[in-house]
Write a structure and sequence with these properties.
310 residues, globular
């Protein structure tokens, strides 16, 4: 029991994923600043932002909403992100437990933060938050099927294994899936899926600061908004880690393998950062069309290629 609590709260759970995600958030902001010819924030800026919201800023409750649901939504978001992070990182770090990283369980856990944001937005009673929640709902419906196709392709490539441990072992015994034609196609699709899941440009319609002033988060402040920041930090780490497990033969936590593990994570985050800094925000109907037609088509082509042994 005590070891499970440690896994959830300390390593590889809440504390570890939050710190790693905060540093990756700084890396993302620093690269963005360099692309825009700015200096960028100091390395501890994400921590300053979080603790300022948590300890200094006042939490203001919406007048026309449901305060209990409004406050519980960020808690559920953090819980879902941490649970997904634990189940992804345990096999990645080769920590032997009863759970070996079932992909379907991880897939559903990764949806909890997004649905929590929607519930919180609708509970706020703000019309702009409702617009953001509606956009988030449509976005989820568009990219989740595509992400499921990516997972189906990975399961086919590793010989019908559903657990993350076996997927990593198959790659480490052979070659990374990203080294094949089908693997490259699935990786491209997966990158755009997690871009949408993180609501990064060009898929930041649910927040859209210039249009609906933070949208789903417009009513959040203080400690409640700090928890949303925390959930986003965690997701910013575990989603790239998930792609590393699915496509880049996971981590080898020994010798230079530690350095390669860090470089893989930073490489995925760098790709995501460059995508969001070289593309404009798209309309929600354009995002739906992009995933429902083009990304699904690429994923299906990849699955067909896998069926032929490539």
């Amino acid at each position: 029991m005590a070891i499970n609590v440690f896994y959830f709260l300390v390593f590889p759970g809440l504390l570890f994923t939050a710190i790693a995600g905060a540093f990756l958030s700084w890396f993302d902001r620093k690269i963005t600043a360099r692309v825009q010819f700015r200096k960028g924030p100091p390395v501890f800026q994400p921590f300053y932002d979080f603790f300022k919201l948590l300890l200094v800023k006042e939490t203001i409750l919406p007048k026309y909403g449901s305060p209990v649901i409004f406050l519980l939504a960020p808690v559920f978001a953090v819980f879902g992100a941490v649970m997904a992070g634990v189940f992804i990182l345990l096999p990645l770090l080769n920590i032997t437990t009863g759970f070996r990283g079932d992909l379907i369980v991880i897939f559903y856990l990764l949806t909890i933060p997004s649905f929590s944001y929607i519930i919180g937005a609708l509970a706020s009673g703000n019309p702009l938050a409702a617009v953001g929640g509606s956009r988030e709902m449509k976005l989820i419906m568009s990219y989740e099927l595509t992400f499921l196709l990516v997972i189906a392709g990975i399961i086919m490539k590793c010989g019908q294994h559903f657990d993350l441990s076996s997927i990593i072992q198959v790659q480490q015994a052979g070659s990374p899936f990203i080294g094949s034609i089908s693997g490259v196609l699935l990786f491209i699709v997966a990158i755009f899926c997690i871009q949408a899941k993180l609501a990064l440009v060009p898929f930041d319609m649910p927040e859209a600061e210039a249009e609906i002033t933070e949208g789903i988060f417009i009513e959040y402040s203080g400690a409640a908004y700090a928890l949303i920041k925390l959930a986003k930090y965690i997701m910013f780490f575990i989603l790239p880690a998930f792609l590393v497990a699915l496509f880049m033969n996971g981590f080898r936590i020994e010798g230079t393998g530690i350095l390669w593990a860090v470089l893989k994570i930073f490489a995925v985050v760098l790709i995501m950062t460059l995508i969001r800094n070289t593309n404009p925000r798209v309309k929600i109907k354009q995002a739906i069309r992009f995933f429902a037609i083009w990304m699904n088509l690429v994923a299906i082509v990849a699955i067909i290629i896998i069926a032929f042994g490539y």
